[in-house]
Design brief:
Strands 6-5-4-3-2-1-11-10-9-8-7 form an eleven-stranded antiparallel beta sheet. 26% of the residues lie in helices and 39% in strands. It has 238 residues and is of the alpha+beta class. It holds the Pfam family LppX_LprAFG. Belongs to the LppX/LprAFG lipoprotein family.
Length: 238
Amino acid sequence: MKFRFAIVIAAAIAAILALAGCQSGSDSGSGDGGSGQDAAGLLQQSAEAMRGLTGAHVVLTAEGQVPNVKVTTLEADISNKPAPVGTGTVTLDMGDAPGTAQIIYVDGHLYSDIAEPGTFVDYGDGNSIYNISVLLDANNGLANALTKIKDPKSEGGEDIDGTKTTKVSGTVSTNDVSALVGLRRAPEKEKTLPITVWIADGDPHYVVRAQIAPTDDAKLTMTFSEFGKQVTATKPAV
């Protein structure tokens, strides 16, 4: 009887030790290192998806004083195949009161009727307002920025306009996002900026939202939808 009791006790102790070992092994894989590794892999998948993206609807908002960016809100349909085109509206900081205008990007030029509604002016590459062609540019746009993010960390899930996303935060050099955020800083004067991206959980892992803080009291937020949208534009009379 005592022998059987000893066997039962020994079996119970073995089971407890085995359970503790499983829990310990599980905990060891859920630390910051695992989170960072998962975030890095997701960023890579998202960069590949964004490089293949041919069009989308984008809403860009600027909060605070973003250097060299007069746009407070931009909403446009953009496409990069067969060539970059875009149409939409912008709200600009005009001093006393904001002004809203139409924008058309075609043949490498941005046209807008900022000065007088209905009368378009050629603003060249559009950098004086905002160059929307850079957003889907594989070399200078968001796809490139995703590959340059340092110390990525997963911040959990979030629902954005009905799309389930994973929030990833990290840092990026001004040299890698200058075109995106309108910075005009010499390469040797680079700074590290905080960046946060919300990546779609479903495949393809497009960026649904991206937020960059060019300065301590300013941030630029881009929200994407209607992925794969095709856009056409005609050069306006100027």
